[in-house]
Fold:
Amino acid sequence: MTAGHDPIATSVLQRALKSITDEMSQAMARTTRSPILCEAKDFVTGLYDAAGHMLEQTENLPILSFSLGPVCKHLVATYGDDIHEGDVFLHNDVFSFGNQNNDVAAFKPVFVDGVRVGWAAAKGHMADIGGAVKGGYNPNATEVFEEALRIPAVKVVDRGVLRRDVWNLIFANIRLHIVEEDMRAEIGACTVGERRLQALVGRMGVTRFAQLRDQLFAATERRMRAEIAAIPDGVYKGEGKVFFDGRHPGSAFTIRVAVTVAGDAITFDYTGTDRQTDGFVNGTLTSSASATTLAFLQMVDPDIAHNEGMIRPLVMVIPEGTILNAAYPKATTFGNHLCPPNADAIARALGGAMPDRVTAGWNHLLCALTTGRDPARDEDYVDICFMGLKGGSGAMHGVDGYDHIGMIDASGGLLDQDYEMFERQTPHRLLRHEYWTDSAGAGANRGGLGVLTEFVIGGGPCQLVTFGDGDVVPAFGLHGGLPGTLNRIALHKPDGSVHVTTSKDLVRGVPPGTVYRQWAGGGGGFGAAWQRAAALVVADVQAGVVSRAAAERDYGVVFVGDTLQVDGLATLARRRAMGGP
Amino acid sequence: MEEKPPIDRARWRIGIDVGGTFTDFLAIGPDGRVHVHKTLSTPDDPSRALIDGLGELAAALGHAPCAFLPAIGMVVHGTTVTTNAALTRSGAHTGLLTTAGVRDALQMRRGVRERQYDNRYTNVEPLVPRHLRLDLPGRLDRDGCELEPLDPVATGAAIDALVAAGCEAVAVCLMHAYANADHERALAQEVRQRVPRAYVSVSSELLPAVRFYDRLSTTALNAYVGPKLRDYIDALLKKLAAAQFGGVLRIMQSNGGVVAPEVVRERAAMTLLSGPAAGPRAGAFYIAAHGIADAITVDMGGTSFDAALLLGGDPLFVTEGEIDRLRLALPMLDIATIGAGGGSIGWIDAGGLLRMGPQSAGAAPGPACYGRGGSLPTCTDADLVLGYLPPAEFAGGRLPLDMDAARVAIGRDIAAPLGLSVETAAAGMARVIDANMAMGVRSVSVRRGIDPRELVLVVAGGAGPQHCAAICDELEMPVFLVPRQSSIFCAAGMLMSDLVHDDVASLPGRLDQLDPAVVAQRLADLVARGNDMLGQEHVAPEDRVFVPSLDLRYVKQYHEVNVACDPCGAAVADLFHAAHDRLYGYHLRDQGTPIEVLHLRLRAIGRVPRPRFPALDRSTGDANQARLGTRRAWVPERSAFEDVAVFDGDRLMPGAVLPGPVLVDQRTTTLFAGAAWTVAVDGQGHFIGYRADARDRLPAALREVCP
Structure:
């Protein structure tokens, strides 16, 4: 054993770090103003060592979280000696390791006895970040300048003193005052992390802390490598499809991954992936790397600690100029949402090598953002309809998909707005938010259910932006499981006309009284549906989430008349016709 | 009308805590003397152990039960009937009536999956299945104005459907009912009229506060566990009456207060997390004897560890929590519970790090050393190997411990994989679990901006006293207190718990624009309701205390900070800014950001007299008469085994001072303090451990006891 080796103290350190990032997360959730942050929890918090290595994170939205470390390292490289106790840096720039323009991070260095021992960071999706369209997601953008204000690593607080000039410059370019308040909350969360990390390292001493950190990274890396070593060696290829770049109807793009497993090493090589688009449907280096990381993490032991040791074994080749890593100054706001097709590509690649670990397809995100004015409150609002976007996850061997979990980018970390809060924070009124019958892909294990959402648009004229996918090809089934269902958003206007949106749309002047209808699809099924226990099908029919017709057609379960009693002989016959014994 | 005094000091008062294994009784006689009794729990009908135990207690005191029960003035009872019903999903067949379009919110839980990277993690079974979640026409807007009336035909049909399905309980929760309860009231009345036997749980009665999912989940939980608690309480009252019980019965709630049975019958959810709720109050009592008001109480049992913060002699509260991943938005004590106990199992993760828990061997199969079929190494096994537990005299000799089994388990699963000796491995297990518990302590203190180093650790539970010195070391806390009767801590706490009713009123608006007359009126309404409740419970007016607080936030924030204050006073804003900075790392005083008010809360308290434990004889403080000998035990400061002096806790009297390392064997637990520690016995016979090298950091009041 190496000198100072102490698995016990290492385990203690890991717990302590996690409790700090959790506390930072709680501070963010309770102080931010935008419902995107405080209701849906579209943010992450983390701690890093002095050089920017990840110590621990709380990842409400995983797609955001694996770019904080790279940005932290970039900060250290950029500022060198000019990093002092009491400094605060802001950053969102997608061409220096940011994942998405709207995801703005705050970083605060942490000092103990004059020595920098680490960083506390928080990053959340801001309600506005300048650019051509309020709230972001400009589907017509071709360059970053049409999307957002770029914030490269910028020092906004110097040794505890606010740099008012810089601060004012930033917020003069952002439409909504709450963004300034939410950035204060982010910095507050960093201060909470700073205070706690200071106390922790102060107690054990800087040297001891460094020793234990190295041991923690090494232990975590061993655990990760053991998981990789359990995958049979080989080169595994898979593809994921992206439809419509927002500018060219009918356009389609392919993500191609070759996963090479050799012993305890793994490489995700995206060479051969389609070129970048000239719209905003482009990934950034870290949004794509985050997507790959989170998709793979779902295939290994979920209890592995999240630190530098966990990500070290994951090697990625994401060529610049592809749809996953657009070159400067391309538009990229959509990049986070290339996670679902990227995850599809990885699942298809590894499905054979890890049959018990891979799920069928998850429902892809399709989402709408409404902005406008609430005259009764005399306030502007920006709302992302999180409750509407959350479809079902894919089923896997032995486990049904998770109903209404939402996009794989978040994997259930992103929450619905509370209905009453939704009606208080916007002028809209909810009519319906329910499981969507027959939305899940049938299978021995069925996919997760999708949802139906309807609300009446209220207040003044409303601007609606959609972004997402999943309206062309449904979530795929695996090993004989059936696919899920398609996404769709339709606006039923008071004059009786219906506008079905595209997946990347900008609709101006939506009149009040319009009914917004959204179908978020279900996940794909796993295994042939006739294998599913009839009792489970009966339960779904009783609950009304599978119709009698679908029970008979897809699962081969036939009922006696209108009862919930299974017609045993008819079911046997029907299942035999489907391939059963 | 003359009010009947609530508690007759001339009669017996008894606290009864029903645990998984034992039902504990703490009885205080008319002379103020304290008696302890334990009997085996009867989980199939917990009231049996309660009635039987009272009879046994009478016999032990030399009374006939028929003479003893009429002499009891008050029984305070903590029950886990609702907790078990929720955890084991054995509650009532429940139906839900709600607003059209939103019935699935109960099952969706806002779409959360708590373990994001775990695709095998499934959603929680909803308390009300989808076919019994019926939605109805009738709609209010966000201001409580009616957009659509209820439809009597649809309402009637829905109620008939629930009756036909055999529902015993009905939850009623409608959109925006916090702003206008008319629709809910009409629905509830209709249900009660058509189905008089049904347990009806109405969101605007239980929790008139904004946030639909929180209210829905809480209302459904209340309905689900309500009939069980109602039936249990009714049966218990009947049995007590048959046994000629002449006093009042009070039930423990999650908010640390006690309440009359007829009140809690309708608010069953108030008892869901009441298990550990009596502990902090007991802790406050023990330190109050020393004039100390700030402490952290911890209770380490077989499977879980509970930690709570006391400030100014009072436990702290949160307005929401959860049980088995189900939201429960009712005020409750702020207690951090983690999976660390004597039964916590040690294991090595794939990266080679030692872990403890959260899996627990529980009482069955139990730790390896229990010899009841358990073979995995637990915290208790480590404690035995380390010499902290007496092999032969454990649990008063009723459960001899198997040292060999403990060593085999630790050797196989911990020591061999780590390349350590069994002893070092056991010491490591203790250290990891101590660190886990220290984290729990930190989470209730540091999170609130409180430095644990300035507080006393009050320790309860069978496993607590073996670990408290190490937890203190981990947190740099200089002093702990182990009550002489630490294993019946909760039963004692019940006798010290006041009657408490939490009420809330919506009061939306800006703090600087609130109309003082309106605030005063709302407060007066809440006080009147509190007075009604306390009056029903025969609390004398001079024993009633009302504590108002406001839920505040900066404008456009959506989560509140609860600030105890005079809601009409001038200091509210300053108190809020300070609390915000302590909790969240900043405040907005300088930006002049307006403050919003969401709710006015009122806690109505009916004070009960505290028991007086008689002072023990100080003249027998010579420790030597209580010395039992020595035992080989691990001394962490020296990383070595030594012969450690062992004392009989029952024979140690006030004034005794024991330098560490030292072991104090008690009937149900053993206290261990390492070489850096000294243990002194205080005037009530409780054990105070302190670090001699940190004596200057002790609260002044303790310096006399700690020479």
Remarks:
- Chain A has 15 helices and 20 strands.
- The mean pLDDT of chain A is 95.
- Chain A has three domains: 7-220, 359-527, 534-577.
- The longest helix of chain A spans residues 177-204.
